Amino acid sequence: MAKTKYYFNSQTLKYEKVKLSWGLKMLKGLGFVSTALVFSFIIIALAYTFLDSPKEKQLKREISSLSLQYDILQSRLKQMDLVVKDLQERDDNIYRVILEAEPIPLEVRNAGFGGVNRYKNLENYNYSKLMIETTKKLDIISKQLYVQSKSYDELAKAVNSKGKMMASIPAIQPINSRRLRSISGFGYRMHPIYKIRKMHSGIDFAAPIGTPIYATGDGYIVAAGVERGYGNRIMINHGYGYVTKYAHMSKFKVRKGERVKRGDIIGYVGNTGASTGPHCHYEVYKGGKAINPINFFFNDLTPAEYVTMLEVASRDNQSLD
């Protein structure tokens, strides 16, 4: 119930009721409503600023999930790009070198997409830029994989026409990897005797004395005897500019001038020459120049085993000779 208000009339010396006109009543009502609306607006604004509605919470969860999926997609794209680059590197610098084929020109591998706007249908969306960039990356990787696939088709034809050459080129490990103890790879390593960093022109396969050593490709024995530092060593000429050397052997199973096939036993692991432990020191030469043998184990290793071998051989450790 509204309170009745009075005022003191100085002329009549009486308290009289305050009577408001309709205009004042309406103005007062409008003032109350306006004040209520202002406070309501402030409360709603604060609520929307600091508190999330159920719909906003749901949208934020979806955005967070999409951001995570986008990051995962970008990470996978980077991994795919690294794999493609590794395939290209091995294609140009190993397989094509082995088969004496010309490397694929860089402008062919990295050819872009000309002509009309391929991504017009992805424009005018909230995240058009992200979608276009991701689609472009996928297109580039797809194009590179297509070029790589055509390259392998070309190499397959070359392999078929060069069967004898492929049988001659070193392509396996000189000893059974399941009997390995450790590996010291190609490159500068700490010399076990001189205690200085010295170029190690091969790979050391530590294994028990008497472990069989295999010819890594078809060829003929050009040397089977003692060499300073190498101890008992064998050299095989495979033709096509390739020669392999096997050192520190305990004994031979072949003689100079004898022809051998890939996988034939040519001798056994020993500890002769400048050696600090039983192992097979293995070198590969192309055109008289020592090259990393790790690139010639593609016949008897799975991709996973090759990655493990590559990681172990690249460690900066001490050689065994």
From TrEMBL:
InterPro entries noted in UniProt: Cell_wall_metabolism_enzyme (IPR050570), Dup_hybrid_motif (IPR011055), M23ase_b-sheet_dom (IPR016047)
Any Pfam family: Peptidase_M23
Ranges that cross the membrane: 29-51
Domain M23ase beta-sheet core residues, every copy: 198-293
Keyword Repeat in record: no
Entry keyword Transmembrane: yes
Coiled coil spans: 56-90
Keywords: Coiled coil, Membrane, Transmembrane, Transmembrane helix
GO molecular-function terms, A-Z: metalloendopeptidase activity
PANTHER family registered for this protein in UniProt: LIPOPROTEIN NLPD, PEPTIDASE-RELATED
The protein's name in its UniProt record: Peptidase M23
Organism: Pelobium manganitolerans
